[in-house]
């Protein structure tokens, strides 16, 4: 049993590289290729493990790309539970353009999942005893929109804290039907939930409303360069962004969620967990391609976020 079990229904083999210039119709030579296991929950498990926590990644995978995904997780020594599917796992591709410092990201929708292929995941969740369950990432084609809500109900029935980071039906239906411990929408995802654009005050009110209506104990809204916000029944905390040189945006939100969940699982105060998440998200954009955050960068930026010297405990 790991302290944090992550669920990734639509994982990916993440490939990243660099090119001098990206131009249409031309053969583009790339450099510094890198391959990593990816997808929301898998990224969360990678970051929790990097930070010294105990995580296990539950995921669907198939084909030769699914085998490669499993090999990449083994390479990084990530505890994992693979459930096979007939279709092949998707491959995402990011290219950093040296001349402009721009990043191009290509993300396929992913394979079609058959109804019976999800059953093993649900059975495992019923038997598992991890105190935290993190469902992160998009729903693959063929998976019902209420699948994450069903997982939230399974986790709640055995006393686990369910953490949600999804979009579309995965976000809306789960919050309509179930109560979660922590939900982490981006600004755009929160606007999707309420049906219109939000200014600063609107974000505060929408996050607080989710808590007030019993949808979540904590609502953490990430706003990119504008920082983040955490709403709970007791307080609303707003923290500014940590401004760092941007090398790649891949996995920044997943790093935020991983570090925040890890800090909460360690008994940290919500405001400390929010700042730790902010530090991990900022640390992730410092690294190239699909590397995610480095522990030493997270600790340094966490100290900056807190305005004091951070110890080595986290």
From TrEMBL:
Gene3D superfamilies: 3.40.1190.20. Residues 12-293 form the Carbohydrate kinase PfkB domain. The keyword Kinase applies. GO terms for cellular component: cytosol. Keywords: ATP-binding, Kinase, Nucleotide-binding, Transferase. GO terms for molecular function: 6-phosphofructokinase activity; ATP binding. It holds the Pfam family PfkB. InterPro entries: Carboh/pur_kinase_PfkB_CS, PfkB_dom, Ribokinase-like, Tagatose/fructose_Pkinase. SUPFAM superfamilies: Ribokinase-like. The keyword Kinase applies. Belongs to the carbohydrate kinase PfkB family. This is Phosphofructokinase. It comes from Chelatococcus asaccharovorans.
């Amino acid at each position: 049993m790991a302290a944090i079990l992550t669920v990734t229904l639509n994982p990916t083999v993440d490939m990243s590289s660099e090119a001098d210039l990206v131009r249409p119709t031309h053969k583009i030579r790339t450099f510094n290729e890198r391959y990593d296991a990816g997808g929301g929950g898998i990224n969360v498990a990678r970051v929790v493990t990097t930070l010294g926590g105990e995580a296990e990644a539950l995921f669907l995978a198939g084909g030769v790309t699914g085998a490669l995904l499993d090999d990449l997780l083994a390479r990084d020594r990530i505890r994992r539970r693979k459930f096979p599917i007939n279709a092949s796992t998707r491959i995402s591709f990011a290219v950093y353009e040296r001349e402009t410092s721009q990043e191009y990201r290509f993300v396929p929708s992913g394979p079609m999942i058959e109804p019976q292929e999800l059953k093993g995941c649900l059975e495992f969740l019923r038997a598992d005893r991890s105190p935290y369950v993190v469902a992160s990432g998009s729903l693959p084609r063929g998976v019902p929109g209420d699948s994450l809500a069903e997982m939230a109900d399974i986790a709640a029935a055995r006393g686990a804290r369910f953490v949600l980071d999804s979009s579309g039906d995965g976000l809306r239906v789960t919050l309509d039907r179930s109560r979660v411990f922590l939900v982490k929408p981006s600004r755009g995802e929160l606007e999707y939930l309420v049906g219109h654009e939000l200014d600063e005050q609107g974000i505060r009110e929408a996050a607080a409303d989710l808590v007030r209506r019993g949808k979540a104990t904590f609502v953490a809204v990430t706003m990119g360069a504008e920082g983040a916000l955490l709403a709970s029944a007791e307080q609303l905390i707003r923290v500014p962004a940590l401004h760092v040189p941007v090398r790649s945006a891949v996995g920044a939100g997943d790093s935020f969620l991983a570090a925040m969940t890890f800090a909460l699982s360690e008994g940290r105060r919500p405001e400390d967990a929010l700042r730790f998440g902010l530090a991990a998200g900022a640390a992730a954009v410092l690294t190239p391609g699909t590397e995610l955050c480095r522990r030493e960068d997270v600790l340094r930026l966490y100290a900056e976020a807190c305005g004091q010297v951070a110890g080595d405990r986290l």
